[in-house]
Every structure is written in structure tokens, then in C-alpha cells.
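Standup notes, structure subgroup. Blocker cleared on the adenosine-5'-triphosphate input:
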Amino acid sequence: MTTFHYLWRLITYRPMRYILNAVMWTLIYLAPIVPGLVTKQFFDTLTGHAALGFTVWGLIALLMAAALGRIGLIVLGFITDVHFRFRMGMLLRRNLLEHVLKQPGAQAIPVAPGEAISHFRDDVDQSEEAASWSVDVFGMTCFALVSGYILIRIDAQMTLLVFMPIVLVITAAQLATVRLQKYRAASREATSKVTGEISEMFGNVQAIQVAGAEKRVISRFRDLGDERRKAMIKDRLMGELLDSVFTNSVNLGTGLLLLLAGAKMRAGTFTVGDLSLFVYYLTFVTQFISNVGKFITYFKQMSVSLERLTFLLQGASAKVLTMVRSLHLHKDEAQEETDADPGVKATPLQELEVNGLSYAYPDTGRGIRDIHLRLTRGSFTVVTGTIGSGKTTLIRSLLGLLPKGEGSITWNGVPVEDPGTFFAPPQSAYTAQVPRLYSDTLRNNILLGQAEQSGALSQALHAAVMEQDVAQLPLGLDTVVGPRGVKLSGGQAQRTAAARMLVRDAELYVFDDLSSALDVETEQKLWARLFERREDATCLVVSHRKTALTRADHIIVMKDGVIEAEGTSAELLKRSQTFRELWYGDKRKG
Ligand SMILES: Nc1ncnc2c1ncn2[C@@H]1O[C@H](COP(=O)(O)OP(=O)(O)OP(=O)(O)O)[C@@H](O)[C@H]1O
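Run returned:
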């Protein structure tokens, strides 16, 4: 999509609002025409070139009324502008967010969260800015045409000298924009890096301390800050340079106007009233010139923003950004959409079958190949394997947390078209290897907005072997945990995530390596309680622990992205060297 096309689609999102805004701002820009003509008449009356029916006080009153009228118009203009801009910005942010949320969870954004926030904030603002300024350019062009017509009729030569700077400035701006665009892209990039680094530093405070890497991290942060400073200076300098070109070429025009007017007035071909009109309009022409320049700059910056926003879409068409959608500004609209979305509800799980599932990470080419597996109701399947053998990738591909690769998935024989939407409660629930907790109460972290049903929460806590930990927390379930609350241990965080999963009655429970932070006894308790609670629970579990392996009805051994062997632990101990290594290597941990 070209920048112009992008601008056009933004403008036509709410065409009536745009037109209303354009009409308001055209009136604002045209308003000075009348006081200019009145002032000219007044001076011409003083010098005897015309006769005007009012006094100095009358003129002052008229000019005051014109100024007040313009102030009123500007207030209304700001209201129409804010409404229009708000809708444009919200549309972009809404579409972008919706697209991100629809992406497979594990690859929703291609950059660090801090960087993504800067795209949402700055690039959307930049796009708004250009669209909003297009209104001003239209209004100012109307002013230029009307005032140009009036001035040409008075003196064509003088008019040319007033308007010549416009041509000069626009040409200069056009020439400089390629460079400005480059500097703008660099400064945005540098800002994103700094924001991204801050979010990474805050997210990894402990890792940085443990590694004693404070100095190196600060020095890297300083380097990024330095890069940003240099890039910003270039960007600002270029912007200011262009601004000063605009202003000074207008000053040049004023000087020429005064020189020429002197000679012409002596010759009697130019009146004092004419001069007052030229000087009066020149102020607005100045504004016109610098604003056209500003618009050109904003337009160029908009193309950088468009590029950056399109990058966030990870290959989807840029049209996604400007798709016409409701902004839910009225409560009823939001309610209607919620009511219209019943979610997916499939038949109770009897059999889940995966055939030929493959996925390769685009950057490393590694992943999984040709995975076949079958889970029947109430079965306990363990995926095991060496480090980096593809266990997590298998789980994530199955659950639709990675983009769809090859292969098919069927639930009770019915193909699952969109695993990302399908594999959610009530079909399945999942605990990731590294669980994420929010800065909120433990209760809210587990429920995540789900209505609290009597007994469900305490049952889930019991099944997740979390009840004693809760009893020891200062405010129990109402203790604030997460980054800004009480820090939970790795095992507590994993069991909180397990409780979060178990509080949702699901057909299929998927655990990605719970054992990494649980001791053997706790893990044993967890499996026992899970089956006590629901005998027909179907589980798919990544683990290398004997606790899980001995309970398994079926074990899948992964190596280098493929299934190397499968069967029960007794069978695999006879057949699979990798399995034996994992089994005996695990001796120390039971
Ligand atoms: N986001 C990613 N981008 C590129 N390559 C990746 C990514 N995540 C994993 N890989 C690669 O894919 C392969 C499988 O990784 P995966 O995380 O699925 O293994 P795993 O068996 O779960 O490992 P672990 O036991 O350490 O959890 C590895 O070679 C890994 O380097």
C-alpha cells in the first residue's frame, strides 16, 4: 500500500467527519480575508483613495468581532479535529491489536513488548498527524487561492514576489525529505531499541544480578542511549533546518515587498491600503508556507510509520490497519459483539489424533517433523526427550500457539481448522513451561476473569498441591503476587499456573514440563490428585521424570524434532537408547 493510499483509507474511514472538519478549518483559514479587505478600505479612506462609512472605533470593533468570530471557529475546529483524529487513531490501534491477538500466542509480535508499545503509540500518532494536517492544507490552499486572486487583481508583480518563496520552500522541502525520512526512521528505530532494552532490563533484574552483569547492561544501555541521542539530533536538526528555510524565505518575501512597495507608491500605482492588505495577508501566507512544508514532512514521516506498523503485521496486508470496523464507542455495540460470540464448544473428547504435524522456525529451520500421535479419553501421554528435541514445539504447534505448519489434527474424527481458537477451555487447558503471573491477587491470577463458583477454586488449589502455600501467604488468596507483589517461588508459580488450568473444567490438560520446578513428592501428589478429581481427564504432559513416566499409558520419545520411539516405559527401556539415558540419568531425582 502506498502512503497516499494509506492516507486516503484513513480519511475515508469516517468521510462525513473528515468533511465537517475540512469545512471548519477552511472557514478558519478563510476568515482573515474579510478583516484584510476592511483594513485596506480604512487606509484607503485615510489617504483619500476611497470612502468608508465608519470611524477608527468602528474599525476596531469590526476587527475585534472578526477576531472573536475566528476564535469561536477555532474552538469548534478543534472539537471536530479531536473527534476525527481520535477515531482514526483508535481504528489503527484497534485493528493492530486485534491482529496481534489473533496471531499464534507464541509469535504474536515480532519485537520486544516495549518496542511494540512504541509502534502503537508513536506510529499511530504520526499517521493521525498527517491525516489531520491534510485538512489544514486544503483550508490554506483555499485561502491562498482567494487571497491570491484578490492580490493579483491589485498588483500581479507584487503578488508573484509574495508567493515565490512558497515555490522555493516546497522545492527545498521536497529535496530534503528523502534525507529527513532516513533520519526519522533511524531515530524511531533507536527509540524503540531503548524502550525495548528498558523493558528487558526490568523483566530480567534477577538474571542480571545473578550474572553480575549490571555494569555491562548499563554500558549497553548507555550505548543505545548515545545512538538514540545522535539519531534524534540529526532528525531534529533536519526538521528545524527545514522550518528555518520556510520562515526565512517568507522574511525575504516581506523585504522584497517593502522595497517594491516604496517605489510603486511614489509612482502612485500602489496605495497604503494595498500595502496594508499585502502585509496583512503575508502573515497568513507565511503560515500557509510553513504548514504545507509541515504537511509534506508529516506525510513523509507517515510513510516510515506505515512501514513500521506493517512490520508488526508479520506478513499480513497493510490493509488490515485501515479495515473499517466499529470502535465500540457505544455500550450497546460492544455488548452485541460479546453476545454474538458464543465461543467454540466441541463434543466431549473421545479421541484426538495428530497426523504428519511439522513446524520449522523460520529463523533457525529447526522444529518438529512428521509427528503422529493419538490420545484417547482418560489417557496419560508423556512426551519426553533430550534438551531441544522439540517437545515444547510439539505442544505449541498442536495447541495453535505457533503458526500452522503441515499436518492435520482431528478431534473425535472432526478436523480442527483453527487450533489456536479451538484449544481453549472447555476443550483444553494448558500450563506453559514458564508461567506468567500478573501483579494482582492470587485469586484473580487463578480465575483470570472467570466467575468464582463455589468450591471450584479450593478444589483446583488442592489438586495443584497449593493449599498449604496459600495458608502461609499473609492475605491468603487475596495476597497480591506477581512482579509488583509477593514473589512466588518457581514451583509456587508453576502450581499457581496449574491451578489456573484446573479451575477451568477442560477435556484435555496439557502440561509443559511442570517437573522443572517441583520436587518429586509434590509432583507425585499433583498427578494423584488430578486423577482422583477426574478419572476421565486426558493429559498430555512434557516430562522427563520417572514420576510421570511410570504413570504414563503411552510415552513419546523425541529426538532432533522427530519421534524416535514410543511405547510404555517397560517397552522403551528395552528398545530405546535415548529413553534409557533419560531414565537412568534421572536416578538422582527419583
Ligand atoms: N523461537 C524459536 N526460534 C527459533 N528456533 C527455536 C525457537 N524455539 C525453539 N527453537 C529451536 O527448535 C528446537 C526445538 O526446541 P524446543 O523448545 O521445542 O525443544 P524442547 O525439547 O522443548 O527443549 P527443552 O527441553 O529445553 O524445553 C531447538 O533446536 C530450538 O533451538
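Discussed briefly. The two ends are 60 Å apart (CA to CA).
Next: hand off to the docking folks.
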